[in-house]
Amino acid sequence: MGERWKRRKFSAEFRAEAVRRLAQTGNITGLCGELGISHQLLYQWRERVDKERQKGLMSSERRLRMENLELKKALVKRTLEVDFFKTALQKIEALSRSDSGSGETASGKPSGN
User: Fold this and answer.
1) Cα–Cα 20 to 30 A to 59, which of 23, 84, 101, 110?
2) pLDDT tens for residues 63-112?
3) CA separation for the pair 15, 42 (Å, rounded)
């Protein structure tokens, strides 16, 4: 009864492998016996892995949302630029149509002679 539980350190690889095997096995008791760990510890590792995976997904989702927002802003900016240039081109075309002259002088003779 005086035996104390030794706190063992398990590598990240060992924990990841144990959780991977947990997902694949139907015999949890056998797996825990083989690994020399308790059910409770194995479930804690699985919960930690699930939380980290969820955190990573949320981080990826947040990054994608930010990228999407930046792309939408860029699209709005380009759309405004295109509209500006279309309007400017229409005004230039309208001015050139209303201009009746060719831009040349009326006679081919130089003035003052």
Assistant:
1) 23
2) 899 999 999 999 999 999 999 999 999 999 999 988 755 555 555 566 56
3) 8
Residue 105 lies in a domain: no
Q: Residue 7: which H helix or E strand, with range?
A: none
For residue 89, the one-letter residue type is L
Domain limits for position 44: 12-97
Which residues contact residue 21 at a Cβ distance below 8 angstroms, ignoring those fewer than 6 apart? 31
Q: Is 1's pLDDT higher than 80?
A: no
Angle between helices 12-24 and 28-35 (to 10 degrees): 160
Contact between residue 22 and residue 42 where contact means Cβ atoms under 8 Å apart: yes
